[in-house]
Amino acid sequence: MQIVDPRSGEPLATPDTDSSNPSDIDPSNYIVDIDTSNFQQVVLEGSMNTPVLLDCWAPWCEPCKNLMPVLEKLAREYNGAFVLAKLNIEEHQQIAAQLGIRSVPDVKLIMQGQLFDQFQGALPEKQIREWLSQYIQPPANVPESPEEQAQAALEAGDATTARSIYQQLVQDNPQHYDYQVDLANAVLAEGNASDARTILDNLPPEHRDAPKARGVRARLEFGEEAPSHEELTALKSRDDSEARFKRALRQVADGDYEAGLDGLLALMKSDRSYDDDAARKTLLRVFDALGADHPLTVAYRRKLFALLY
């Protein structure tokens, strides 16, 4: 596998592994617990030949427990193209202090004895893959991850398959609460709002109130608040603010977000005072449902800002 310097695009040292015969590589050679006795050898000296992914974690850290199985899975998949070095900062506080660790999980990519990049927090597997692929060529013919399979199923309208995949992920990773949120989303896509709400309500408070869970709850609430298609037909001949608002709400509930956002913005322009500024408040809820990084959220936040200021 080729390893590149992202700053110059030039290839770096190639690991001393034979990717054509991966079964010969013992996982214990590339998934290693780090302490004061082997930090120099594994992380600093070892990274001169093979990249090292240094996972700084703590026993009391729930996100660390969610992240570590993902990193171990990737290490096995990459089969020696990088070394996963796991550092328990509680047991080795001196090393953690020298590294400047302030919060965990903290993952650092060390190559040729230098820090090349890092991330903090338990990122989704897909995002970690994308981050890692900037530096190390992914192995060929890797099957889609369960998360990717579930997402593809949802995009294809097969919510039942997505739900089944997420149920297995939740069973296998009971402390990975993002999977439970994903399961709630798939259950909601199947049309079972009651079960989706139950899943969300049973999350720990810090996960129940996180952006991802709020987004699923917002979609759930839009479905409950939106007029039925029969009611919408009755409003067809009307063009007052109430009818326009309900049409936009139905579009959002049906997943036609762009049309719904356009309708809400138009209502703000024509009747800002309707139902105590309901159009603006609903726009913000749609942003919450989509997520801060969604292209529609970014685009329509700009439009909202321009309209307001």
UniProtKB/TrEMBL annotation:
**Native organism:** Litchfieldella anticariensis (strain DSM 16096 / CECT 5854 / CIP 108499 / LMG 22089 / FP35)
Domain of life of the organism encoding this protein: Bacteria
Q: Which CDD domains does this chain map to?
A: ybbN
Single GO BP term:
response to stress
Domain Thioredoxin positions: 20-137
Q: Which SUPFAM superfamilies match?
A: Thioredoxin-like, TPR-like
Task: Specify residue ranges for compositional bias: Low complexity.
Answer: 14-26
One GO CC annotation: cytoplasm
Tell me the Pfam families matching this sequence: Thioredoxin, TPR_19, TPR_20
PANTHER family membership: GEO12009P1 (PTHR45663:SF11)
Q: What keywords sit in the KW lines?
A: Disulfide bond, Electron transport, Redox-active center, Transport
Q: Which residues form a coiled coil?
A: none
**The protein's name:** Thioredoxin domain-containing protein
Sequence segments annotated as region (Disordered):
1-26
The Gene Ontology terms for molecular function here are: protein-disulfide reductase activity
